[in-house]
User: Fold this.
Amino acid sequence: MIKAQADIAIIGGTGVNDISLLTDIQRIELETPYGKPSDAIVIGEFNHRKIAFLPRHGKNHSYAPHKINYRANIYALKQLGVKRILAACAVGSLQPEYKPGELVFVDQFIDWTKLRINTFYEEENVYHVSLAEPVCKELRQLGIKEAEQMGLAHHQVGTYICIPGPRYSTRAESIFFKDVLKVQVVGMTMATECTLARELEMCYMPIACVTDYDAWTNNLVSAKEVREVMQANVLNVKELIFKMLAKIPNEQTDQCICWHALQDAKQ
Assistant:
């Protein structure tokens, strides 16, 4: 029996590993049927609500995107009672108007990964969840509203192509994503997390920060560049997250499809 509980979770990505605004903090080590999550989950209080924080890459960014135990991460949050997930992530831009430093409220994704297990339902109880609208509408609308009020440069829509990593795209791949698929941003984690969260009927919203123009330009992407741009914008990302935390309603409404995703999904 897990005594610690949280209503909302923050999944921290590159640069977003600070939890200083949470109070009454405790660290929870969890074991799931899928193994251990990336790190201990920190639970604290903010605005009279229990918030969970999990760094997806673990301590010191020790797990590469293809090595993250996504199922353990999402399942562990579900064990704690989490209903909504805000997930910070760094992305590369595939279109010139999506500029480094800007936020993208991703509304669609293309999953380009090949070897990840991205379902909880492999045997016996098989569910086919709908991901036509993969990102929680309510959380996206709230995020956009808060970003506008903060005066942050952002894009209200964007399709995210999820590549396996840890390597960055070749120039040929990047141009294909840009000109043929006409995708806006590229990353390595969002599609897997989003799919698993929907299967457990949890609301999920990525907060994507553009860190670079991918390999379709003459510039070469580097981990150093990604880290530096993310660090320069991390205060905006964290402020947006905590402004959202203060306004997320306690109850999920009928307008949100996430919390009853399994209702008609049984084969």
